[in-house]
DNA sequence: GTGCGTGCAAAGTATTTGCATGATG
DNA sequence: CATCATGCAAATACTTTGCACGCAC
């Protein structure tokens, strides 16, 4: 539960308050793997805390993003998906079935650094998404 | 005006109809460089066609995306930005001032192909965005 | 003429905000 | 006990849809 600690620390450092809601949301999120939207978080946390509101979910997720523990992503459409930022990785997304594979490639990371440097950018973060048909969807599409 | 031709062809092939509105929107867009949102398109095209509606803009942009001539992107927030898909390129985005630099890197493209192949993906498209501080914003942030 | 396209207004989503109340440091 | 957080409802921002009328084929 080290990430939960980090979040509590972040909250303290900002002079904010630690609440049951924030703990519940953060700890559920850190237990979870993959990409989730606000509604999923709301639904799940509601089981442990029936009174919780949507706004609290959004407000807490925003804090987690500011704490650098979570990334907010938009794959294609407008809805935000939140992702655990433990280890860095990029995404391979199947346009057929929506499956998301995470991967990491050190060579690409290095090349990104050199591109940023060429433009005088101080690189803070990046996103890379590869869209295509996965091995399962490929045959279906070929018909 | 070759892209406008392609769009007209796409419309014809689908059994749809060519209209003044579609032409006006598409040709304004192809004349334009960079990333624009629906409202900008609406405002600009309105000058030539005061009666035009927002829905027609959205409907036409969707057609252009389906025709493969335009990409719809979401950089960070929910609003869609449309981009001319003539030459492929990726983006370097300044988190300080919002400036967007387009670039292309052949080595990265090749590595992306190999990543996709490793997962058995048939690559259709990709996006890569580097976020950081541009040379102008870097000093301000350092203070 | 038939069917698709248009503009308008209304409805949808996803998210944010104002406010009175409640909890935390 | 001052301040921040919460839940609700209302507001917002962006986008889509239903519908009556009009235009392209």
Brief account:
Chain A has helices at residues 2-13, 20-31, 38-48, 54-66, 106-118, 137-142, and strands spanning 35-37, 70-73, 81-84, 90-94, 100-103, 122-133. The first copy, chain A, has 143 residues and is α+β, with helices and mostly antiparallel strands. In chain A, a hairpin with a 5-residue loop joins β4 and β5 (100-103).
Overview of this structure, please?
The structure is a homodimer of 143-residue chains. The first copy, chain A, is α+β, with helices and mostly antiparallel strands and 143 residues long. The first copy, chain A, has helices at 2-13, 20-31, 38-48, 54-66, 106-118, 137-142; strands at residues 35-37, 70-73, 81-84, 90-94, 100-103, 122-133. In chain A, the strands form two sheets. Chain A has a three-stranded antiparallel sheet with strand order 1-3-2. A three-stranded mixed sheet of chain A has the order 5-4-6. In chain A, a hairpin with a 5-residue loop joins strand 4 (90-94) and strand 5. In chain A, helix 2 crosses helix 3 (38-48). The longest helix of chain A is centred in the middle third of the chain and has 13 residues, at 54-66. Chain A is flat. The N and C termini of chain A lie far apart (48 Å). The model of chain A has no long low-confidence stretch (mean pLDDT 89). The interface between A and B is medium-sized, with 35 and 35 residues. Strand 6 of chain A pairs antiparallel with strand 6 of chain B. The first copy, chain A, binds a DNA duplex (25 and 25 nucleotides) through residues 15-22, 37-39, 51-56, 58-59, 78-80.
